[in-house]
Design goal:
There is one protein chain. The chain has helices at residues 16-32, 72-81, 96-111, 120-134; strands at 2-10, 36-52, 55-67, 85-93. It has a single domain, classed as Ribosomal protein S6/Translation elongation factor EF1B (Alpha-Beta Plaits, 2-Layer Sandwich). The protein is globular, with a radius of gyration of 17 Å. Strand 2 (36-52) and strand 3 (55-67) form a beta hairpin. A four-stranded antiparallel beta sheet has the order 2-3-1-4, sandwiched between helices. The termini are far apart. It has four helices and four strands, in the order E-H-E-E-H-E-H-H. The protein is an alpha+beta fold.
Length: 135
């Protein structure tokens, strides 16, 4: 089994629940094809370098996993079919040096605190507004 990394950019027009469902579907595609997910890195909503399908922003999510090389074609095929994804990229870590770098990225992703979820930010703003109004 080889080590891989997938960066996916999900459409920003989806609700927080739909974004989470799309990410769960992405991870399910990997595990259903025999992959073992080692780590996830939720980067959150970010500005794109250039507009993609008239979208200026996108929700970034990185998945580090191990899978047999034959399964990559099916995983990428399923990603291409998914209309919620703006872009995706698959990176293969092959040499010993690359695998060592992959292990470092996995440790860093597992150690990092989770990025705030899309639905948490508006709730915090609403609480601050409610507190200011009460004063």
């Amino acid at each position: 089994m080889r080590k891989y990394e997938n960066l996916v950019i999900v459409k920003p027009t989806l609700t927080a629940e739909e974004i989470q469902a799309s990410i769960n579907a992405i991870e399910e595609v990997i595990t259903s094809n025999g992959g073992e997910i080692a780590a996830r890195d939720t980067m959150g909503m970010r500005k794109l370098a250039y507009p993609i399908e008239k979208n200026e922003r996108g929700y970034y999510h990185v998945v580090y996993y191990s899978v047999a090389p034959a399964a990559i074609a099916e995983i990428e095929r399923r990603f291409r079919i998914n209309e919620d994804l703006l872009r995706f990229v698959t990176i293969k870590y092959d040499t010993n040096r690359e695998v060592a770098a992959w292990n470092g990225l996995v440790e860093k992703a597992n150690k990092a605190p989770e990025a705030p979820k899309a639905e948490e930010a508006p709730a915090e703003e609403a609480e601050a507004t409610t507190e200011a109004a009460a004063e």
